[in-house]
Amino acid sequence: MRLEDEMKQLTIRRPDDWHVHLRDGAVLKAVTPDTSAHFSRAIVMPNLVPPVVTTRDAAAYRDRILAAIPSGHDFTPLMTLYLTEGTSAEDVEVGFRSGLVTAVKLYPAGATTNSQSGVRDLSKVMPVLERMASIGMTLCVHGEVTDPSTDIFDREAVFIERVLAPLRERLPELRIVMEHVTTKDGVDFVSSQSENMGATITTHHLIINRNAILAGGIRPHYYCLPVAKREEHRLVLRRAATSGDARFFLGTDSAPHVDPLKECACGCAGIYSSLNTMSCLAHVFEEDGALDRLEAFASLNGPAFYRLPPNEATITLERRETAWDYPRKRNTGEDDITVFDPMFPLHWVAT
Ligand code: DOR
Ligand code: ZN
């Protein structure tokens, strides 16, 4: 890492995004260049319709992603499989050993977008999880219960108590990433665990609390899952992300939905942040006096967890006097996707 000219320029190893949604078809083509412009690798979520369930599905999806990367961008998608109660441990192992599949994603059925095929009964997938533990493969977890009687703001904390803590006790060797952690409860739990458990933190959860969604009117472009929580939780996430602690690393959870699917009576969950994430993060880390730890969060801790080398290439972020007039929308050819608005001007620009 190099800080120059009284922090006007920051050069760090190229970051990776350990949790992103690239979708398929026209959206895939529209959003992939925003990820590949700044990130060398990304863990690509499998919640397509239909989901990426088998190694064969992952191979075909990987080819579609590779076809959407602009020439001149050096980007490697890291594939995941969507865990179902019918997933074969054999197929998971074959995918992992071949190098094609990096992780398996657990969605509790009904927790979020396209999660209907997820897991209802964890005991049904224990043979797969045991196989993953024995081969050292990572389980990425959407950590929310789906029980309708649990308040939506409590779903992460209840998941930890009912599902995650018992799973850790039952299978301590399994490598787990608690994805997009949003609460003090989540940060405390991950911090209390051994080093084979980590957590991703999104850019937007470092910036917004639940007021962004609800105060003064309903703002669908700030709605995502897990939903943003109270300010006290955001501050804990900021401390975890900017601490340099190796368990916490960047997973943007950039999740594009076209505007008609967000701006309606029952809008989809998801915030599209790939385009300006690095600028937002530089602002956040500067504000917290932690620019020297941005590289750990965005470029070092994730590869260390996934036991991959950090990227050799670098990225330079430059602090400009004039705020960056970033594109507010990405067009898919038919519809627009709204880009995350951090509600402060972006002076840091990735060059
Ligand atoms: O806000 C979200 N959007 N959270 C998720 O877990 C899924 C994602 C999506 O796929 O849209
Ligand atoms: Zn996600």
Describe, in plain words, how this protein is organized in 3D:
- The mean pLDDT is about 95.
- The protein has twelve helices and 14 strands.
- It has a single domain (about 15-310), classed as Metal-dependent hydrolases (TIM Barrel).
- The protein is α/β, with parallel strands linked by helices and about 350 residues long.
- Bound molecules: (4S)-2,6-dioxohexahydropyrimidine-4-carboxylic acid and zinc ion.
- (4S)-2,6-dioxohexahydropyrimidine-4-carboxylic acid binds near residues 112, 142, 225, 269 and 270.
- (4S)-2,6-dioxohexahydropyrimidine-4-carboxylic acid (DOR) binds near residues 47, 113, 142 and 225.
Question: Could you write a compact summary of the structure shown?
Answer:
With 351 residues, the protein is an alpha/beta fold. It has helices at residues 25-36, 55-67, 89-97, 126-135, 155-170, 184-191, 203-207, 211-214, 231-242, 259-262, 277-287, 294-305, and strands spanning 2-4, 9-13, 17-20, 41-44, 76-82, 101-106, 138-141, 175-178, 197-201, 248-250, 314-319, 329-331, 336-338, 348-350.
Please describe the topology of this protein.
Layout (H helix, E strand, L loop, with lengths): L1 E3 L4 E5 L3 E4 L4 H12 L4 E4 L10 H13 L8 E7 L6 H9 L3 E6 L19 H10 L2 E4 L13 H16 L4 E4 L5 H8 L5 E5 L1 H5 L3 H4 L16 H12 L5 E3 L8 H4 L14 H11 L6 H12 L8 E6 L9 E3 L4 E3 L9 E3 L1
Parallel strand pairs: 3-4, 4-5, 5-6, 6-7, 7-8, 8-9, 9-10
Antiparallel strand pairs: 1-2, 2-11, 11-14, 12-13
Bound molecules: (4S)-2,6-dioxohexahydropyrimidine-4-carboxylic acid and zinc ion (ZN).
